[in-house]
Amino acid sequence: MNLLLIEPQEMKNNEVWLTDRRARHLIHVLKVNTNDIVRVGVLHDRLGFGKVTAIEEEKLCLEVCLEQKPVIDLHIELILALPRPIMLQRILKQATVLGVRHFHLIRTRRVEKSFFQSPVLRPDKIQTLLKEGMEQAMDTWLPGVTLHLQFKPFVEDVLPSLEGQGLIAHPTARHTLLDAPAPNSSQKRLLLAIGPEGGWSDYEYQCFCEAGFFGLTMGKRILHVDTAVVTALAQVQLLYDLRKR
Amino acid sequence: MNLLLIEPQEMKNNEVWLTDRRARHLIHVLKVNTNDIVRVGVLHDRLGFGKVTAIEEEKLCLEVCLEQKPVIDLHIELILALPRPIMLQRILKQATVLGVRHFHLIRTRRVEKSFFQSPVLRPDKIQTLLKEGMEQAMDTWLPGVTLHLQFKPFVEDVLPSLEGQGLIAHPTARHTLLDAPAPNSSQKRLLLAIGPEGGWSDYEYQCFCEAGFFGLTMGKRILHVDTAVVTALAQVQLLYDLRKR
Asked: What is the ipTM of this complex?
């Protein structure tokens, strides 16, 4: 936990009493004492510091000073064919660490129906994973997560309403990310689509292309979905940094 | 399993009988029939195809035709402060998928001593993970793995003998990968050093810098070690592709 996340309504006159796992983490893992300073962030708001002013058994009081606005540079929404639960957990957390702003979990032909029944998709479970990612990366932005149970309504109704240049990974695409029209300093919003373990069907890939998505190959090596997600996010970030220079 | 890996000594006149988990995978998971064709690669050698010529209960015969030489482009050796076992497993596999040629697992101040007792470090366990990575990425190169139990002898005796430009990730480094002197088409050998969860000590970082390593920051977000490894490998590959153009 590199950042202690606080909900806005928990603050009262710059003071917050913690009584849950955060208090226990501070007391038992970080072993803080009175007057110690910890990094603090308020959900969807600023970052700053908290001074420990009181410790009582399993609860703890912080005096909070917020100063630094969160930096939102690239705005990436990840469109992901719902992977198997264990992989989904890892991706939600890792992609949050890497700054994804919204997850669209979609149904495609090669997604197993049973994946949609997974307990990982329970809102409280998802929120825990996302918050762990935010605490790691020191980010106060809680990504959104939307589940789309059918492919066609997603492509026809939702996709046109999303803002940003679309990129879709597909092994037979002729171009690479280096040819992609975005990101750059005038187009910082991206929709990144990553298929299921068995790949997109031709029809699905076609639908994305018709919606203006740029198809790109990620090289000759076949990556697992979680590796593909981190690889694509890392490369998009590097390309953006390079084009910004 | 995108590639069936065969050891050179298993081949007899372009024929190979499989009796282990590979046979079971072909028969029960891929459900191959006689005359079916599968992608085949010989360890540290060429790739090609295998035609199923016989299936007998739990064993299976392939007629192998090898044609394609493996492409070795970037040669990356990963110097990794030994992470906790569960993370090590993931990194060995993912980094093999991404093409790492050699792993140097080293001891640093913030590596827990107990990690060196982990059963994950048993040679057969390591080899299974690496082979899974090769099967996924369709690569016939089995990466080497060396365990270095002490930091100083590694830095003083081993490091000078390794070939390639060194890059070391460190949060307070002033440069980013975009400023790094390699990779490029005349320097395709890289030594990439990634520290433990708590980071390198100042002394350790200094040792690498004195050995000619280029220090780079991976951005403001603090990444888990496994995410950092995949991110760094993905970005090095993109930068190489870009500079090659």
From this structure: 0.95
